[in-house]
Write a structure and sequence with these properties.
Blueprint lengths: L1 H15 L12 H13 L8 H10 L2 H8 L3 H7 L2 H11 L5 E3 L6 H4 L8 H4 L3 H8 L1 H7 L5 H12 L6 E5 L2 H4 L4 H6 L7 E3 L4 E2 L2 E2 L2 E5 L3 E7 L5 H9 L9 E7 L2 E6 L1 H9 L2 E7 L7 H10 L11 E7 L9 H7 L9 E7 L6 H11 L5
Helix pairs in contact: 1-5, 4-5, 6-9
Length: 368
């Protein structure tokens, strides 16, 4: 792909900056003088070999690359070359630390089949798709809420309610060497605890309250698949445990279909959103997890406006991880009506956690 990209960039260069030595000798003197003047006004960057120009562009962040495209007609054509942004898209997508329902790449852009030239490539605007999906671009320019969502946000803030409550579940809570919840409980410099309320929902504990930015109080009800001794034994033996949260109802096309137990139903009806902790250290299929998520988010338990935060967790910094875009694909989050986000998190340091919590609170109606 790199060689095809360089050929395309050289073609752009040749069409815009022809070799002055090859000019016809019979050109009018006035036109030659104008071309000499244009040649003298070009920067030294324009005269670098295409390979060097490409190398420079690979080091520029998207916003600076777009600014470079505004410098001249030559650089506008170079920066808008479709193959260039396809290269960036395929290079960077695996390193994106988050993706959500507004920024998930379209299916046609996720295909890694070689589409290097021709009309098929021209129909795919990789530049616009990159700028829409890249976390760095989302942070730079922000994402505008649709009008109806903004109205709902305003109305929710008019009503003084209790602290938002979220149900947290998922294999990443139980399978990793370092417990995410334990780290959260003992990291007051990141997420201070605000208490353990004394109330229960059908025998399930009331959870733990935390403070976000030392201002916004919220509660997390942790739903484990089984007892702690069984979870620890299964983790050490790298075996699966039978979850007490779900009941398998059958199969559809070879895939399991689940429903939630009565106790979990009560929790699903009482919370303002959900946190699903995925084990990003494994790249195994997540069809079972996807089915369980869909059972939790059934419309019968509550409105589809409630947000879902997926924490894509590894135990330690530097651990091999499944990219956030891949986790979203495997969990089939595009099938959900709920707003959702996948956020990379490290259990040991809680890196990335506050970004996810901030998104969750915002989509739960809090003005942060």
């Amino acid at each position: 792909m790199r060689s095809a990209l360089l050929r395309s960039l050289r073609s752009v260069r040749e069409s815009l900056l022809p070799d002055t030595s090859a000019r016809s000798s019979h050109l009018p003197q006035r036109r030659e003088e104008e071309e000499d003047e244009d040649e003298g006004s070009r920067s030294s960057l324009d005269h670098l070999p295409v390979d060097m120009q490409f190398l420079i562009m690979t080091y520029l962040p998207p916003e600076d690359l777009c600014r470079l495209g505004g410098c001249s007609r030559y650089w506008r054509s170079m920066v808008q070359e479709p193959l260039l942004w396809r290269y960036f898209f395929m290079r960077d997508m695996a390193s994106w630390t988050s993706v959500d329902h507004l920024s998930m790449p379209q299916e046609e852009f996720l295909k890694t089949a070689a589409v290097t030239e021709g009309s098929e490539l021209q129909r795919r605007d990789y530049m616009s798709e990159y700028l829409r999906c890249s976390p760095a671009c989302r942070r730079q320019y922000g994402q505008h809420r649709p009008a109806l969502e903004a109205v709902a946000h305003f109305l929710q803030n008019l009503v003084a309610g209790a602290e938002p409550r979220f149900a947290m579940l998922g294999p990443g809570l139980e399978q990793l060497d370092i417990s995410l919840m334990t780290t959260m409980m003992y990291s007051p410099h990141i997420l201070p605890m605000a208490g353990i309320p004394q109330r229960q929902i059908e025998g399930i504990g009331s959870g733990i309250s935390f403070l976000y930015n030392n201002r916004h109080k919220f509660n997390i009800i942790t739903l484990y698949s089984t007892y702690s001794s069984e979870r620890e034994r299964a983790r050490l033996e790298q075996q699966s445990v039978r979850s007490k949260l779900f009941v398998q109802q059958g199969e559809v096309e070879g895939l399991p279909v689940y429903s939630v137990t009565p106790q979990v139903q009560e929790v699903c009806q009482a919370v303002n959103g959900f946190i699903f902790v995925s084990n990003a250290e494994t790249d195994r299929g997540r069809m079972e997890e996807s089915s369980q998520l869909q059972s939790v988010l059934q419309p019968v338990w509550g409105p589809a406006s409630r947000p879902l935060l997926v924490l894509s967790c590894v135990s330690r910094e530097g651990a091999q991880r499944t990219p956030s875009v891949t986790v979203a694909q495997q969990l089939q989050l595009h099938l959900l009506a709920n707003p959702w986000m996948v956020q990379d998190v490290v259990s040991e340091s809680l890196a990335g956690l506050l970004d996810g919590i901030g998104w969750l609170l915002k989509h739960s109606g809090l003005r942060l």
